[in-house]
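Posting this for the archive.
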Amino acid sequence: MFARRGIGVALSSLALAGSSLVWAPASAAGGGRGTAAFVCAGKENGSSAPGLGLLPRPTRIEADARYTCSGGPGRTVSATGHFVGFSPHASCLQVNSPTGREQIRYEDGRTSVIDYTRSTAVRLDTVTFVVLDGTVTEGRGKGHSARRTLATLATRVPTADCVLTAPVNHAAGGVQLDVGPA
């Protein structure tokens, strides 16, 4: 029984540590990658088609994010993002690293387009972390590097949802976008 409790404490600690990456204030963003040109943090709702099942298969991923962006002290702007990506072998049993494109619209009318060409994904129990790296190809921040960090928290272990119910096709979570020098 102590072993289960220890595992639970360890996973909870990792989840909290990971969520601090997603919710870091603009002043702390960019760590080790140079000074961020701007940082956006918020929430995201995503879906996949087809839904994630037990067997890996090509999957389209779509997500809508609501951000608050900061370019420095006292300079914030709201934004929305729409991500469309692809994962070649997605399932409930394995975390697969997607690639994709995000279009961001800021409340001041400006836009950005980011192409994500590399990613890393890790699942710890019910927490999934995905980090996508890419380049801003159009609009605000053009030519800068971009890192999109997403953390989702399932109410149950994802494999339980796949076995007990229909395929998993929805995930909500916290998201942070760091845009800075290449």
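Residues 2-22 form the longest helix (21 residues). Helices lie at 2-22, 158-164.
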